Amino acid sequence: MKELIEKMQDSKIITYFNELLTNGQMFHSTIFSCNNQTQLENIVEEIIRMTICENHAIKNDGCALCCKFEKNNLLNLIRIGDGVNLIKKESVNELITSFSSSTFEQSSLKVYLIKNVENLTETAANAILKLLEEPPTGVFAFLLTNDRNQIISTIKSRCKTIMVEERVVDLDIDLELLDLIQNNKKNEALLYSENFKRKDKKEQIEILNQIYKKEILTNRQEVAEFFLDTILEIKRSSYTNLIIENFFIKIFEAPIWK
């Protein structure tokens, strides 16, 4: 089965899904792809609210389910993943078990959200695949990703893919790291790397993504793949210190500095 892809702006995505819901044509499973995690989560959370809403209203209409959604105590909605760390099979099994429970709101619709689907382990991906292949009646899947190329093809082929157009914003970039890279300050990189290790994983990933977009894609394309590989390694590892050390050593040994 071929992957179905459409690219849209935020406002058009809301209207598009409202029409699907109103006409009873909602997709059982949808992948939403965007580099901007905050933008991605905001748009999908609003679509989920609209899906569960008693009236499928574009704006929060104050219905009982919208109110419960806003208070984050809606039993029909299950979220797994944090957008950064690996998602293990146990989390998927808990999801499947939850949908077997009878403790749901009056709405017959049930929704699960995965942040992010590229973070699924192999066994977790296989477990989700079974759910996608035979979706229970009234269950809708929303799968987030920053890189759809990291998702296994069998999952992509069973979902509608929406490419969310990334809004152009001024990045709150880490100027210290940008200066190190732009001016090849190898001697200062070690000290910076020690400070970098003390940041939480989400912040580490955000900083590297910002530098990648601002500097690497434009002026350091020779290390672009290495940059992306490092971001992926950090996302998938529970112990990032060695990855970070290797990154700061190798980034200044790259051919671009010769």
Q: How is the biggest beta sheet arranged?
A: 6 strands, parallel
Number of beta strands: 6
Strand content: 5-15%
* Rg of Cα set: 20 Å
Put simply, the count of helices is: 11
How many domains comprise the coordinates?
2
* N-to-C order of helices and strands: EHEHHEHEHEHEHHHHH
What's the overall geometry? elongated
Q: Going by CATH, what is the homologous superfamily of the largest domain? A: P-loop containing nucleotide triphosphate hydrolases
Terminus-to-terminus distance:
47 Å
How would you characterize the overall build of this protein?
- The protein is of the alpha/beta class and 258 residues long.
- 48% of the residues lie in helices and 12% in strands.
- Helix 1 runs parallel beside helix 2 and helix 7 packs antiparallel against helix 8 (186-197).
- The chain is elongated.
Task: Describe this structure in a few short sentences.
One of its GO terms (biological process) is DNA-templated DNA replication. InterPro entries: DNA_Rep/Repair_Clamp_Loader (IPR050238), P-loop_NTPase (IPR027417). With 258 residues, the chain is α/β, with parallel strands linked by helices.
Could you give the topology of this structure?
Blueprint: E1 4-8, H1 10-22, E2 29-33, H2 37-52, H3 64-70, E3 77-80, H4 89-98, E4 110-114, H5 122-133, E5 139-145, H6 153-156, E6 160-164, H7 175-182, H8 186-197, H9 201-219, H10 224-236, H11 241-250
Helix pairs in contact: 1-2, 4-5, 7-8, 8-11, 9-10
